[in-house]
Design brief:
The protein is mainly α. The protein has two domains: 64 residues; 53 residues, no CATH class. The protein is built from three helices and three strands. Strands 1-2-3 form a three-stranded antiparallel β-sheet, with helices on both faces. α1 crosses α2. It is elongated, with a radius of gyration of 21 Å.
Length: 125
């Protein structure tokens, strides 16, 4: 039976596979274009671009996605009941307590009528 650790290991392997495929494709395209145009600078630019974008994507993708979606960090004083619920769930599952974040509703998630509106909550470590 699968548990949280086997899913985590599977996700890590898939992440490394996706990054490897990305690096190979971008560097391969850079190599092809550098051969076509006879300019090795194209390959160097492709390698630098792929490495930098992989690094940024791996380490900062969560912050970028939260910034683009207009997420707001929920402090303990803002919603104490929600904060305690998140803490209790983390303690019960034996995981570190994540920071609760409220995501503003997007156009695609709005209901057909103005009420009832609800906020989405996401957890971030």
């Amino acid at each position: 039976m699968a548990n949280i650790y086997s899913y985590r290991d599977s996700n890590i392997r898939k992440t490394y596979l996706i990054f490897t495929i990305f690096l190979v494709v971008i560097i391969g395209l850079g190599f092809i274009f550098s051969q076509i145009y006879g300019n090795s600078l194209i390959l160097v630019i492709a390698v630098i671009f792929s490495v930098i974008s992989s690094f940024v994507g791996y380490w900062y993708s969560d912050k970028i996605a939260l910034a683009v979606s207009g997420a707001k960090l929920i402090e303990k004083n803002d919603a104490p009941e929600l904060y305690r619920t998140v803490e209790n769930l983390a303690i019960a599952s034996g995981l570190p307590t994540p920071k609760p974040i409220c995501l503003r509703p997007s156009v695609h998630s709005l209901p057909r009528t103005p009420s009832p509106m609800s906020s989405r909550i996401a957890a971030r470590e």
